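Moderator note: this is an archived Q&A kept for reference. The question asked for a predicted structure of one protein chain; the sequence and the answer are reproduced below.
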Amino acid sequence: MLQIGVCDDDSRMASMYAQAAEESLRQCGAVGRVLSYTDSRNLLWDITEDGFFFDLLLLDIEMPGVTGMELAEKIRDVLPDIRIIFITSHMEYAIDAFELSIFRYVPKNQLEQRLPGALRDAVRLLELEDGRAYTIQTNSRLEKIPYKEIFFIERDGKNACFTTKAGTARVRKSLQQVWEELDAEEFIFIDRGCIVNLIHVMRMKDGMAVLKNGTALPVSRSHLQSVREQINRYWGKHV
């Protein structure tokens, strides 16, 4: 799920940027969340102190307190791969924006013509670079797990435990919440306490879903027929 932040000290402009970002997500078929700020200091604090993660930021350059340019410089060490779109009414800032490796520069007098395209290009690039990934964020860490690396997810008390190519990872969420956030056809419930990634299912045998890595996961009787149908439907489309 893509995380997008917008910031402009003019609340009307911030709202407009947020709506444009949400529309771009819909047009690209991407899953994401948009957070809106009217104080750049709050955004800076959320990133540097509270560990908020963003894939993309839309920033007005001329803001009181911390300018968009200063904000971009301060967060680079924390979010080195972030994409930033600068919006301003002063063309001379474009040179500095270029030196900061900003993704795109959009003049305010051309917002309607250029902002939608800039947003769509950014979203498509992020989707292409990262593929789809699930973000686990806690007070102490941030981890993005590509969908293709997730084998299965099990309930572990109040946590959801991801088994991936790299090992295991836990998030304090219900399986239902995780499944809804994944929002992808390859993830299905095979039991009340287990979600499997169909990409890794090699066969069904004796009521077990056998994965390519050799793991055999039991499929509950109540889910068995539905699981078989979903596997056949998925394989029919993608194999």
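Archived answer notes: Helices lie at 11-28, 40-48, 68-75, 93-99, 111-130, 175-182, 221-238.
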